[in-house]
């Protein structure tokens, strides 16, 4: 007997995939988007969906499980961290006073990721709200070379950084999910 979960996938078409192509909301029928902005937004959307997919079907204890001690990282912590990141990115492009941290202090996003349904519900709500707010703040800036905020960050640079952050955390989510229940796939 072992505590290590058996590896598995829901996919039946390709055994290395998370879901079958017909069930994957990231799959796109037809050609990809036209233009740099549309391409960047599409990649960001797919990484956002990937993170959500890696968290689907888990209870609060599983979402809060810290699978690689002594790290405080968990899937729930990643959801909260992404919400915090989205808020921080708005601070980067603002000329005003910075918005306060969502979870109070440094590492509050991970430290406060406890196995409680109210915390899980709040994490999803925070993430969705902060994503929408950052998207709305950037919607008026379609020139990817436009520089925003006190530091003069280019819209393109911010979009690429957002993609990079989601991609890195989706890699973390792959490993965390596999440790929780053995589910694997892209």
UniProtKB/TrEMBL annotation:
Region (Disordered): 1-37
One Pfam match: MST
Name of this protein: DinB family protein
